[in-house]
Amino acid sequence: MFLTGDRFAFTFTEAPSAKAPRSPFFKFDKESSWQATRVLMFSGGLDSLSGAVEEIAEHGQRVALVSHFSATKIAPVQRYMQRSLADAFGANTCQHVPVQVQMMGRSLKEGTHRSRSFLFAALGAITAEAFDLNRVSFHENGVVSLNLPPVGNVLGTRATRTTHPQTLSRFTALLGQVFQGAMRVDNPYFWRTKKEVVETIARLNMAEQIAVSRSCADVHNQTRQHPHCGRCSQCIDRLEGSRTDVRDREIALSYVRNAQAFEYMTPEDLERSLPAVLDAVMHVQQPPETALDMIRGLLARHGSSVAGVMRKALDQRAAGSFPAHSLPRLYGEMQTQVLLPTVAVAAAPAGRAEPETIAVEIDGAARWVRVGPHITFQRDANADLLLVLAESWLSGAGQGLTPLDYPCISAPELARRLGLESEEALRRRVLRARNALQKKFASSGLDADATREIIENVPWQGYRLAPDRVTVRRRVDKG
Predict the structure, then answer these.
(1) Domain, as residue range, for 73
(2) Most buried by CB count within 10 Å: which residue of 16, 20, 156, 216?
(3) Which of 11-20, 62-71, 286-295, 397-406 has the highest mean pLDDT?
């Protein structure tokens, strides 16, 4: 099964009577004439809260909020949040459909909940059928839905693809057959990051509910004093708390390191380093190349938001001033160590010679740059970018710095110098420059792969021309 990586065997027993017993799960009022126009799975977490708020406040829907709970700790939170929605937008805008399902017996206890979305989807589909609807929606940000591993060894039995595009596509196919018609299971938030989800709640004036929501995956160990474990990826998104356990620290650090890598990845980097992303590409209703680039953009926005939080924290205070096991302290200390990246980097082919240094010649007055013996750019966006970075390189050389200490230009500052409106626009500018260099080198019979290393982005610091890959000089006027 794609959802969990497991194989399941089912044994069916014929019912003693053709007449099915009435289900005690759904407590619909016989006198009620309320009719839902949308069925949403409602966990009580940030993403499902945002989805409910948006469907009601922005799209004018009447929503059935279907909740499953196996632990009584989460049920009061779900009820409170539904009442808050009804108070804010009107009693007719939403109804709560809670369903309690529990496994019986100690030998049947299962801590991973890997297949829980199969149960959720079934409950949602039954509810939709009851309202004569054919759509069920999970709301979960795309970074969580993609389920890219937080660390290289966190795989297998605790991996989950609960709202992965391929999972929802398979649910749609299966439930369409079960209900002998169309039954769509989707995730309207796949193209959003957690930051964008939270911003939606705030924009629709429900920010006070953010603190009430429960996103933690470890429901059974929650207490009133500690409603979030601080270890799962959902908690890392929300909390800066202390992490003393070695495994917890590594998961948190890997989460931030991955986000940092995502910030600057190209589609090619993504496909090479995380081939699991291709499991989603064919299931998002976009051409494959477009889908891959859109997923890259999603991960880049996520990376930018996470890295931005860390940059802001470490800009305001020295890492050593944070509590000993807090994430800013751990990450600040990590920056002084030599660590292998969490996201795999493709190894160079065996036997490949170390590439030669590439000469870069510049003329600022003419807006002219030559890279290598033949490649020139003049009076265009690529030339402007290379000129700014080359001037910074010359500054480092002029100060007598060692190559690794050559200065970087932060993304906001580089965007400002180039007259760009955002860091996302800057990333696109850098990507286009890299692509232009690659194409020009290839057409000249030079090593096109070497161009990927010319413009370097150093995590937490910014962009520069790679000091160990290029030498920069000003063009001499021979007239």
Answers:
(1) 32-102+112-214
(2) 216
(3) 286-295
The verdict on 50 and 169 lying in the same domain is yes
Q: Is there a domain that residue 143 lies in? A: yes
Do both 452 and 363 map to the same domain?
Answer: yes
Confidence of residue 209 (pLDDT cuts 50, 70, 90): very high
Place of tokens 């206890």: 109
Could you give phi then psi for residue 423, rounded to 5 degrees?
Answer: -70, -30
Instruction: Characterize 305-334 residue by residue with b for buried, 16 or more Cβ atoms within 10 angstroms of its Cβ, and e for exposed.
Output: bbbbbbbebbeeeebeebeeebbbbbbbee
| Domain CATH number, residue 373 | 1.10.10.10
The count of structural domains within the chain is 3
Q: Are residues 286 and 377 in the same domain?
A: no
Q: What is the CATH number of the domain that holds 134?
A: 3.40.50.620
Q: In this structure, are 161 and 59 located in the same domain?
A: yes
Where are the alpha helices (H) located in 317-380, listed in sequence order? 327-334
The length of the chain in residues reads 479
Q: Say whether 22 sits in a helix, a strand or coil.
A: coil
167 closest CA partner among 189, 141, 146: 146
Q: Using alpha carbons only, give the angle 9, 126, 3 rounded to the nearest 5 degrees.
A: 40
> Both 63 and 209 in a single domain?
yes
User: 161 — phi, psi (to 5°)?
Assistant: -125, 50
Beta strands in 56-208 (DSSP E): 63-69, 94-100, 135-137, 184-186
Domain finish residue from 290, 313, 346: 346
pLDDT interval class at 169 (50, 70, 90): very high
**In this structure, how many other beta carbons lie within 10 angstroms of the beta carbon of residue 233?**
18
Q: What pLDDT does 3 receive? A: 64
* Same domain as 205, residue 75: yes
Percent helix, percent strand, percent coil in the chain, to nearest 5:
45, 10, 45
Q: Which residues is 375 bridged to in the sheet?
A: 371
**DSSP H/E element including 263:** none
Say yes or no: 422 and 386 in one domain: yes
CB 37 within 8 A of CB 12: no
Q: Is the pLDDT of residue 340 over 50?
A: no
Q: Is the pLDDT of residue 304 over 70?
A: yes
How do residues 466-475 score in pLDDT, each as one tens digit? 888 889 999 8
- pTM score, two decimals? 0.65
Beta strands (DSSP E) in 386-469 are 455-458, 462-465
